[in-house]
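Researcher: Batch entry, complex prediction.
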Amino acid sequence: MADSSDHALAYRVASQTGELLQRMLDEPAPARRGSASLEHAADRAAHEFIVKELAEHRPDDAVLSEEGRDLSSRLSAERVWIVDPLDGSNDFGWSAHWSVHVALVEANRPTAGAVAVPGWDTTWATEPTPTPIMSRVGDAPRVLVSRSRRHVDGRVLQRALDAEILAVGSAGVKAMAVVRGEVDAYVHGGGLYEWDVCAPAAVAEAAGLVACRVDGSELCFNKADPWSPGLIICKPAFRDRIVDAMSVRRY
Ligand SMILES: [Mg+2]
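Model: Structure tokens for the complex:
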């Protein structure tokens, strides 16, 4: 099982990758900001840094990275790090809504992880346990959805929960908005990849939140196909209503 050094490693690697990416944003001429070449260079640099750190400090562990080759040897490994070096790359250089995901998976479940959101100057991890830092007023539940699914998931949840719907990019940023108490839920009805979901789910569960598939079933990681069918991260009190709302066929 993960020990305290795994939690600390996830925290440090996610944080330092975030710092590296922030430096890349701060250094180039403004004209490069938001360019495809900057996104590509950022993806590569972040991936290479994470892989180097894990190879040095956890040489026996496998790695599944959005930016790396998927080696089938990970399927028989006892410990697999699932990482997204830069989640929300469309926002990189344009907004604070991008993040770095680093998580350790054992027996198909995340056992340690961290999400860095440099634009919010914070890294959340499975240890020390996150505590909500924001309080909010108002009765209507606030739900974050993906920009691409605003008119699908957002509409369903607005009707079923009378919710206020907000949409931003990065999955990690949306999940951490729930962790810090800014919103009540993050719901994604479509497909994601394990590197989008794994570290945010690890941190959310450590914070006492629900993290499950959109049908309410348990998340499963290090599958042969890293596709991940939907995601709910929410305060426990909202879980059943969201699962019910999302189960209704809409077409
Ligand atoms: Mg990415």
